[in-house]
Design a protein that fits this description.
The complex is a heterodimer of chains A (570) and B (48).
Chain A lengths: L2 H21 L6 H6 L6 H12 L2 H14 L10 H19 L4 H8 L2 H34 L3 H50 L5 H10 L18 H18 L1 H7 L5 H35 L8 H8 L4 H31 L2 H32 L11 H9 L4 H37 L5 H23 L8 H25 L5 H21 L6 H20 L13
Helix pairs in contact in A: 1-8, 1-17, 3-8, 3-11, 3-12, 3-17, 4-12, 4-17, 5-10, 5-12, 6-7, 7-8, 7-17, 7-18, 7-19, 7-20, 8-12, 8-17, 8-18, 9-12, 9-14, 10-11, 10-19, 10-21, 11-17, 13-15, 14-15, 17-18, 19-20, 19-21, 20-21
Chain B lengths: L4 H8 L9 H26 L1
Classes of the chains: A mainly alpha (570), B mainly alpha (48).
Chain lengths: 570, 48
């Protein structure tokens, strides 16, 4: 990185963090620390909710996913606007009515203490692990850039986020997210414009889209009913709906964002802001990945995007084999580039037969290049069996570092760091508040001063930061970062959502029945994950459906007792 | 835990700053989603 990039990167990151700490100094009670004194307007809430969801993984993995598989991943988000409408109409009024700090407080009022603890426990497990992945993602960038060890980078990255999250609580998280999101949007638009501008030396934007379509990268919607196809319209609408409903309705890292709203209206508007903009934003990020894919049809990419994997082979006695593979890959690339030019020319001429022939030629050469890549990956594993060779997360990063101008590189790296910091801060804030309110205050020390709880919350937030950092140290074992987070969420979210929907919809079902149903549902989902190949989004539907059905069934078998009221046990 | 009647009234009477009711806002948001799905479908068909 040039000096200008370093200045842009650290100026942006430290400036925003320092602003957040300065603006929120002096929060001394729980109301201020966990709900930001209810001062947030819809714009801040909307950007905060968006920034919480859009982690660094979104900006690292998603373009890489589009590079490898095309744009079908956008279907994952089709259920999101529906979920946000439901959260706005059903969940928000209930949370405001009971004046809760965390979503799980409501479960005790509706059911009982053990159900509240189960909800909080499932959240803490799932979110504690996910926070580790959100710290890991940007750390691979810095370690690649500056040559620091990955472990040290993870540690350093985590500390920066912990400092301002512990210092300012919810308000610091929301205020910094607003500015971080502005940096993210400016940076991504700049990246897209520059890629298209670079591409235009070889091919016009409309023709580039046509080529990408012929190379199978622009299949956005797939109406297939095959349950094992990972991304379809149906899995997105139904599985995605349940994933988003659980995430936005019951995950404290999101609930905490919109409960800081000045009023119900401001909270609802913040969610509607996301309901309208989230799907187009994901489409845009995936399209950026497709543009990077097209760029690398004309500019030769490395045989593997993960340079550390190549470096391991170059330093071994097998280096000549790698050189041979790189030469074969270069040959395949040159032939493919010619074939892509032919395809573009055929598309321009409108000759269907020529298009079909050129398309077949490109596909054959793409297979040839992929075969060489596979051999290179095998070689890496033979040299270092512990080395992870999946490199899609490195695609966008490699493009940024090698093909964007000075200053913009720093801005784009800042985008990824801002995204990571914004998500991690929400997660740590939520983990701290849930541990304090649902476990410490409820079970251990119920009658301490407000100041005492704020101090404990800060300590627990820091502790969760340490847990997330520890988990991040093992995150390199996962296949694709964004999928890892979604899979992890899908394993737990269905059950949590089932508990909440039972609370809202099935007033006859009581605490013991829903508790047993949730335990059985979670065990089934985890069992299915290890024994079947069902697309992971369906676990949200299965977990939720099982809790609802089993809750009713178990309740009918239990001896009669007075039905719980919404006011419950307080 | 008792629910504050004033808070309850504010929640029930909550209105969006535009349109007459939240139902209209939700209908608009879901209509926009339908429009996006249609656009994506046409996009997929066009570039297939």
């Amino acid at each position: 990185m040039s000096l200008l990039d370093v200045a842009v990167l650290f100026g942006t990151l430290l400036g925003i963090a320092a602003y957040g700490i300065w603006k929120t100094r002096g929060s001394r009670d729980l109301e201020g620390y966990f709900r930001g004194d209810h001062t947030m307007k819809w714009g801040t809430i909307g950007l905060s909710v968006m920034a919480t969801q859009a982690s660094a993984i979104t900006f690292l993995s998603t373009p890489g996913l589009a590079y490898e598989q095309g744009m079908a991943f956008v279907q994952n988000y089709l259920g999101l606007p529906i979920a946000l409408v439901i959260v706005s109409a059903v969940f928000i009024p209930i949370y405001y009515r009971f004046g809760v700090y965390t979503a799980y407080e409501y479960l005790e009022r509706r059911f009982d203490l053990k159900t509240r603890q189960l909800g909080a426990f499932l959240f803490l497990i799932q979110r504690g692990l996910a926070a580790g992945i959100t710290i890991y993602a940007p750390s691979i960038i810095l370690s690649t850039l500056i040559g620091w060890s990955l472990d040290f980078t993870i540690f350093l990255m985590g500390i920066v986020v912990v400092v301002y999250t512990v210092s300012g609580g919810t308000r610091a998280v929301s205020l910094t997210q607003k500015h971080q999101m502005a940096v993210i949007l400016v940076g991504m638009v700049a990246a897209f414009v520059l890629i298209v501008s670079d591409l235009s030396r070889e091919i016009s934007f409309p023709r580039a889209l046509e080529v990408a379509g012929k190379m199978g990268r622009l299949e956005v919607i797939n109406f297939s009913l095959d349950y094992s196809t990972r991304y379809t319209f149906w899995s997105g609408i139904f599985g995605g709906l349940f994933l988003a409903l659980s995430y936005f309705g019951t995950d404290q890292s999101q609930v905490g964002r919109y409960l800081s709203g000045e009023s119900v209206t401001q909270s609802r508007l913040g969610l509607m802001f996301n309901a309208v903009l989230k799907v187009p934003m994901q489409f845009f990020i995936l399209l950026t990945g497709v543009m990077v894919f097209l760029f690398y049809q004309f500019v030769e990419p490395p045989i593997l995007f993960k340079q550390s994997a190549l470096e391991a082979v170059r330093l071994s006695s097998r280096a000549p084999e790698l050189r041979d593979l790189e030469a074969r890959y270069s040959d395949a690339f040159r032939d493919k580039r010619e074939a892509v030019h032919l395809l573009a020319a055929a598309l321009k001429s409108g000759d269907e037969a020529a298009v079909t022939a050129a398309q077949a030629g490109v596909q054959g050469l793409e297979r040839r290049a992929e075969e060489v890549r596979a051999l290179a990956k095998r070689l890496v594993v033979e040299v270092d069996p512990k080395m992870e060779v999946k490199d899609s997360d490195y695609v966008f990063l490699t493009f940024i570092l090698h093909h964007l101008p000075r200053g913009v590189v720093g801005l784009l790296i800042a985008v990824i760091f801002c995204a990571s910091m914004s998500s991690t801060s929400s997660e740590l804030n939520a983990l701290g508040s849930t541990s304090t309110v649902d476990l410490y205050r409820r079970l251990l020390r119920p009658r301490e001063s407000e100041h005492h709880y704020v101090v404990v919350s800060k300590a627990l937030t820091a502790l969760w930061g340490a847990v997330a950092i520890a988990f991040a140290l093992t995150a390199s074992l996962v296949e694709n970062l964004i999928e890892a987070v979604n899979i992890l969420g899908s394993l737990f979210y269905g059950t949590i959502l089932g508990i909440f929907l039972t609370a809202f919809l099935l007033r006859r079902v009581r605490g013991s029945a829903v508790f047993m149903a949730a335990i059985l549902a979670e065990a089934t989902v985890i069992g299915l994950y290890f024994t079947t190949d069902i697309g992971y989004l369906w676990y949200n539907l299965i977990g939720c459906g099982m809790v609802l059905a089993l809750g009713v069934a178990i309740q009918s078998l239990l001896p009669g007792a007075p039905f719980a009221s919404e006011a419950g046990q307080g | 835990m008792p629910i504050d009647p004033d808070k309850e009234r504010r929640i029930i009477e909550d209105r969006p700053p535009f349109f007459k009711s939240w139902t209209a806002v939700y209908a608009l948001v879901l209509g926009f989603l339908g429009f996006l799905v249609l656009l994506f479908h046409l996009f997929t068909r066009h570039y297939r």
